[in-house]
């Protein structure tokens, strides 16, 4: 429930079509003097660098931060979308992500934690039916996926990475949605972008650290991506 060390955000999208999302990499011991990670998202949203170039720049200073994963994307309805990934506990270079379904938790991209694989399975089942769902219903079904509290155990990979830090809460931590006293999921975000660049951004936030109180906000806007297609 801690506030960000130096501000910033975990996830954001701009009207210019730049989107970024950040997760921490679970590690038993962290460096309290490391640079704050929240600005990694906001700096991309306000920069003129494309997603790969930005992550390449971040990778040079990756060692200055505690563990993190960063997704950066450029959405463009005419040129096509570009999505890239960098994790400072993984490969030294960012990678381009091909079209597909990916899962990211508090380890490297697509690390086969059981809860991650289960979450991808639930997500894929919703997406298969998405053409038959109204936008509002699709958002609600995705929120339901993110609030699944069924522990996926045993998971030696989580235990090996988290060691003594994670064992006391392993039964709760091994679910898609984590609910522990003083620790857990406090925000769900669903971002839908259609082929015409219409964005629906829905966020569900915990109120006053009370798991019985949530508030949901939805924002809709059009991407203002540059295009050479000018019509009179």
TrEMBL record:
GO terms for cellular component: cytosol; Golgi apparatus; mitochondrion. GO terms for biological process: Golgi organization; protein secretion. This is Transport and golgi organization 2 homolog. Coiled coil: none annotated. InterPro entries: TANGO2. It comes from Anas platyrhynchos platyrhynchos. Pfam families: TANGO2. The gene is TANGO2.
